Amino acid sequence: xxxxxxxxxxxxxxxxxxxxxxxxxxxxxxxxxxxxxxxxxxxxxxxxxxxxxxxxx
Length: 57
Hints:
Blueprint (H helix, E strand, L loop, with lengths): L10 H10 L2 E14 L2 E12 L7
Antiparallel strand pairs: 1-2
């Protein structure tokens, strides 16, 4: 848990949980996910895809 009282998972934890759920990571990138009291709050954006999922052309 971060000093602000919010949960803060490590990238490895997120990737492990995604893999257990049968998801492949396409993107895991830093991003400003919100603003609190006028300040940017950094986080990550994850784009996941179900494993063995056929994409339409």
